[in-house]
Description:
The chain is an alpha+beta fold and 150 residues long. The protein contains 3 helices and 9 strands. Helices cover 19% and strands 39% of the residues.
Amino acid sequence: MIRRIHHHTLTVSDMDRSLRFYRDLLEFTVIYDKVREKLPAYDKVMNLEDVKVRVALLNDPTGEAIVALLQFYNPLPQKRMMSNLFVGSTALAVQTDAIDVDYQRLKAAGVRFTCEPVDVVRDGRVAARLAYAFDPDEIVVELYQPADAS
């Protein structure tokens, strides 16, 4: 029986650069970081041959959610255009209780955003504030602040 999401995986082009973003800027904690190769199970489950991949697992600040970052050395990864309109695209939403402070902090660190935080109004009430940031590989990271967190 499926119980919960264990982790969400993001393929990255440069692990060290991505760790600076997720660990240093988003304050996730690295709980595992190793290069894995010669594992038939990886080849089989990923439907690839001779997989060599660096795997980093990071806990979010609560310790309740895990993000897995993968940097492939073999086969070489393929970059593609990112957009919410593409089927299969992903966005990682992180909850904050101070979206404007986090927005300013991340922007000062060079993180690119689509716009400043905006209010999401549903049924005539502000339900949340959010902003879309981009990680080093242009993966969307949504800053999300529920209305009751302000």
